[in-house]
Amino acid sequence: MKNVLVTHADEPIGRRVVKTLFHDPDVRRILAVGDGPPPRAFDRFLAGSEPRLSYSRADLARHRPVSALFHSPGFREAEIDTLIHVPRHGAAADAHAPIVAGVAERTAEARLVLQHCLEANDVTSLVALGSAFVYRLPPGNANRLDEESPLDLDPDVVPETRSWIDCDMIFHGELHNDRVRVVLLRVPTVVAEGGFVYLNPLLAGPPGLRLRRLGYDPLCALVSDKDVARAVQAAVHSRHPGIYNVAGSEAVPLSLLGRWTRRPSLPVPRGILAAAARAAQLLGRDTTGASGSHLRFGFTLDTRRAERELGFRATNRIGLARAGDGSLRLETASL
Amino acid sequence: MATADGWEGALGTGDGPLLGRDPFDEAVGSDPFVARLEQIALLAPPRALRAPRLQAVAPLRTEPAAPPAPAREARRPATPLRRRRASTPSLVEVELPEALGLLDRLIGEDERRRLAAIAHLVDGDTPFDRYGFSPEVTRTAFPIFHALYRWYFRVASTGHEHLPAEGPALLVGNHGGLLPFDGAMTILDVLLHSDPPRLARTIVDRWAGTLPWINVFYARVGQVVGTRENFSDLLDDGQLVLVFPEGMDGVRKPITQRYRVQGFHVGFIEQALRARAPIVPVAILGSDDQAPILADLKPLARILGLPFLPVTPTFPWLGPLGLLPYPVRYRIVYGEPLCYHERFGPEGAEDARLVRYLANQVRRAVQVLIDRSRS
User: Fold this and answer.
1) ipTM value for the complex
2) Each residue of A224-271: pLDDT tens digit?
């Protein structure tokens, strides 16, 4: 029986992870941690005299609140032995877009969570969610990448991607820890019910027109949020430490994905794209996704290691479905 | 040759989507994703999990508290974790798709059926495979290349009985001509003369992957940039892979080296041994005549960042039009498969000398095929 702590449980992927683990009979207690108030979806889980789920608020990017959380009576009583770190990826209220926090916050969160995880004697497993956008892309519209593929350590990489690489390397450094089993799951674009997409730096931000490189239309690998939660569940119960790619079988070009998620893209020459990025930078706007190889080259993920060692394979399909208002939108459904 | 071990594990269920039209066209009346799910549910074995019918998108359900259901099985995969191998149904199993437009009317029923068959390579509910192959784009481009195949290059081919009907295999050919019409004609020839129809996935040079528009078009018609991961993944997937191990040396060889196979890169042998894939040598006659290279302006090519800069009877004198191939007659000959994997096994890939030796053997086989076909 596992007692787990889930970070950023108030955000869509974290919420999905909590729901999945709540229905897992091998998980006894769940301590969900989030920035905001507990989501309404947790109401029924929090009901009752001795609920299996408890919820705490903490700012994971600051040392003191994290320290207080790990030394709190709730943490001790729950006898947490497994920590699931879901990075900040977006709030439910404005879930049309993945609103990510600043780069420093994401990296600081990863470092603090890992540090306290290593200091807590009872914690024996850490499962962290990472991004597959950390890989260096060879030229080509679609590249199959496995876990051994090199990371994009180019100094000119965009800050958004840099933060994911930093987080990745923070967890990577403890993969061989004897006491705490560290599992890092690298996921591509996550699609959730209702057609929301997360963790894609090229589609971050509110809906609207975007610019992309003329002559290129990179392929984006997709995975359902339910499959991400299932992969986390499999990692919790597995005995293997390591890095695993987690992805579904679907992949679509960036132009199509943008159209489906109300973020259509306008192909422009490189010069105009660079000028637009510079102008946005001067205006203090986010220039995430305005440059980098991910605007030219696509990738899909080789998930065989996850199948072999975690026993995980994506079972949710992703496609277009007609919504109540008659419009087509991106959906997921299990087979 | 059909005894290759690697073929026996093929699942070959052929359960890819039947893409007769663009399922993301909002003008389509029925919901293609739901229809697809229903179809999968109907095809699924009785004990498999049924796909729920997608209804109108509803907000998150907030029913009263429910006790946690025992969901131990949910963590376990419903089916053993065996990899689905890409396969296409035979022609008799393929339903003839409706001719939707002018392009469809330009090609015959047999060709339409073949195009419908290779649409089964797409696994998943989006109209792209994991390398960006799009049956729709391929169907659109097909009439143009088919016209080139039939009327412009007047392709004739022999040895189709050597094309493996299923499982991983390599087609290894000689490369020539400025533009890769030899690859395009071979792909078309394989598609038109195999049953089940097979789409040869060409391993293209990395440089091609950087070219605007070209990289997208290549991906949509099933071509893949040649990284080791891509190559091994295609073979593991049971696909037919077309390689030109001469690389750029074959394309830029001068007219004096016409139909002399240049040195081979050896990576394809490693991949073939590891994937237990037979190697089919292919002689392509005509490609070296489509744009005979008189000289290669190497210094200027270096300045322009190009792999080479040829001078032909028409290029650069006629500008970009000079790059177009001459209407030469193509002849494609498939040789007997070389099943090195049966003798040396996957461990042979670790022996560099053996790999080099086998690559030279394949090169020789291609050269012999060319020489015999020309005489």
Assistant:
1) 0.85
2) 999 999 999 999 999 999 999 999 988 999 999 988 888 888 999 988
CB pair distance less than 8 Å for A252 and B128: yes
Rounded CA gap, A60 and A69, in Å? Answer: 9
CA-based nearest residue to A17, from A37, A36, A45: A45
Residue type, B33: F
Contacts of B364 (CB under 8 A, 6+ apart): none
CB contact under 8 A, B68 and A329: no
* SS3 letters across B215-283: HHHHHHCCCEECCHHHHHHHHHCCCEEEECCCCHHHHCCCHHHCCCCCCCCCHHHHHHHHHCCCEEEEE
Interhelix angle B135-147/B181-192, nearest 10 degrees: 100
Measure CB to CB from residue B128 to each of A195, A251, A320 and give the nearest one.
A251
Q: Which CATH superfamily is domain A2-334 in?
A: NAD(P)-binding Rossmann-like Domain (3.40.50.720)
**What tokens were used for A302?**
């080789």
Nearest CA to A175 out of A165, A162, A184 is that of: A184
Which B-chain residues 37-96 have CB contacts (< 8 A) with chain A? Answer: 37, 40-41, 44, 48-52, 54, 56-58, 60, 62-66, 68-72, 74-78, 81, 83
- Residues 6+ positions from B33 with CB-CB distance below 8 Å: A319, A320, A321, A331, A333, B23, B54, B125
- Strand stretches in B106-182, DSSP E: 156-158, 169-173
The pTM of this model reads 0.82
Rounded to whole angstroms, how far apart are CA atoms A75 and A81?
A: 10
Using DSSP's 3-state secondary structure scheme, residue B61 falls into coil
Looking at the complex, does the CB of residue B28 fall below 8 Å from at least one CB of chain A? no
Residue A102 sits at φ, ψ, to 5 deg, of -65, 160
CA nearest to B84 within chain A: A249
Contact A220, A298 (CB under 8 A): yes
Q: Can you give the pLDDT at residue A178?
A: 92
Question: What integer pLDDT is reported at residue A101 of this predicted model?
Answer: 46
Residue B212 has its nearest CB partner, among A23, A47, A216, at A216
Coil, strand, or helix at residue A333? Answer: strand
Closest CA of chain B from A141, distance in Å: 6
Q: In this predicted model, what pLDDT tens digit does every residue of B4-24 receive, in sequence order?
A: 333 233 323 333 333 233 333
The identity of residue B211, as a single letter, is: L
Check: CB of residue B205 under 8 Å from CB of residue B226: yes
The reply to whether A284 touches chain B by the CB within 8 Å rule is no
Residue B161 token pair: 């009985």
CB-nearest to A249 from B36, B62, B124 is: B124
Question: Bigger pLDDT: B191 or A88?
Answer: B191
Distance, in Å, from the CA atom of B16 to the CA atom of A106, rounded to the nearest integer, reads 39
> With an 8 Å Cβ cutoff, is A251 touching chain B?
yes
CB atoms inside a 10 Å sphere around CB A209: 10
CATH number of B91-290+325-374: 3.40.1130
Indicate if the pLDDT at residue A13 is higher than 90.
Answer: yes
Residue A68 has pLDDT above 70, yes or no: yes
Closest to A311 (Cβ–Cβ): which among B24, B77, B230?
A: B77
Residue extents of the structural domains in chain A: 2-334
Residues A27-41: tens digit of each pLDDT: 999 999 998 899 888
Tokens 């489906």 correspond to A260
Which residue in chain A has the smallest CA separation from B23? A320
Provide the residue ranges of all domains of chain B, joining segments of one domain with +.
91-290+325-374
Neighbours of B218 (CB within 10 A): 25
